[in-house]
Sequence to fold (305 residues):
Amino acid sequence: MRPLNSRIKLLIILFIMGVSISLNFLTLVQAYPETQKIDSGCCAPKGTLLAKDFSAFYFGAWNLVHDPSAIYQRGSSVNASFLGITPHPESFKYLPSFLIFIVPFLVLSYPNALFGFGIAQFVLLFLIAFLVYRLLKGKNVGVIGFASVIALLLPFTTVPSWGISEAYFWQWAEGQDKVLDLALILLALYFGMNKRPVSSGIIFGLSFFDPRFALVAVPLFVTINREKFTQATIVTTSVIAISNVPILAYPGLFPSFLQMLLSVGVTTPLYYYSYIPLLTVLILSFAKWKEIAQTFSRHSGIGGN
Fold:
C-alpha cells in the first residue's frame, strides 16, 4: 500500500484535531453550569459541599500578594467569603511557582477568574494541537491522530451527564490546570527539538509546579535535549529553584509547605483530569521509545554541551 500523500495526511490530522477541539468546546459549554454550583464535585462523598478546585489557586494567589505565610493553610479553616468563595477554599497543594500563572487573574472577581482561566486554557488547546503534530511529525497518521484525540479530548465517560469526556468535563468544571501543565511540558519538548535548550529548560522548570507529570516527561526531555543535556538540565533546576525558593523562604512558609506535602500532597490521587497530561506524555514517550532507548543505552551517551 502506497504511503499517504503528505497533503492528504495533513488534512486528515487537521480534521481529527478540529473535531476533537469542537467536541471539547461542547464539553466546556456543558461543564460551565457546574462551575456555579457548590456541591461534592467529581470525587467527594455525596452531600459534601465544596468550592471548586480553582478556589485553592485563587486564594493562594491572593495570599501570595497579601500574606505569603498563609498560602498553605488548610482551606477548611478559612473563611474567604470576602473573595466570593464559599463555603471555604480548597487547600493549595502545588509548589508556589504555580501562583505566578494565577496572580494576573486577581484583577477579576473569583467567578470571572474561574471562567477566564478556563477560556485561557481552552485557547491553549490550539497550541497543544500544533505541538503534538510537530513533536510527532514523521510518524504515521494513526499515531498522530490518536495522540491528538487523547490530548485534545480524551473521549471516555462513565456518566452521561459528564459529556463525552469526563476528564475534560471536570477539568473545566473545577477550574483545574492540567491543560496549562500539558502545554508547558509539550512546549519545553518543542524548544528542545529545535535546539533551544535554554528556552526548553525554562519552560520545563515552570511545569514542575506539579512534579508528577513533569517527572513522567523526563525521559522525553532528556532524549530531545541529549545534545545539550547539561545546559538544559542546569536551566531547568535553576528555574525550579529561583521560582520557588524565594517564596518558600518567607518566614513560616516552608514548614507549612512540608506539612501540606506530607499530610495531603503525596496522597492526592489521580483524578479524571490528571489523565490529560499523563496519557499524552505516555503516548508521546511510546511513540519515541526507540529514541529514548538509544539515548539511555550504554552505547549512546548524552551530550554535555
Q: What stands out?
A: The first helix runs from residue 6 to 35. The chain has a mean pLDDT of 93.
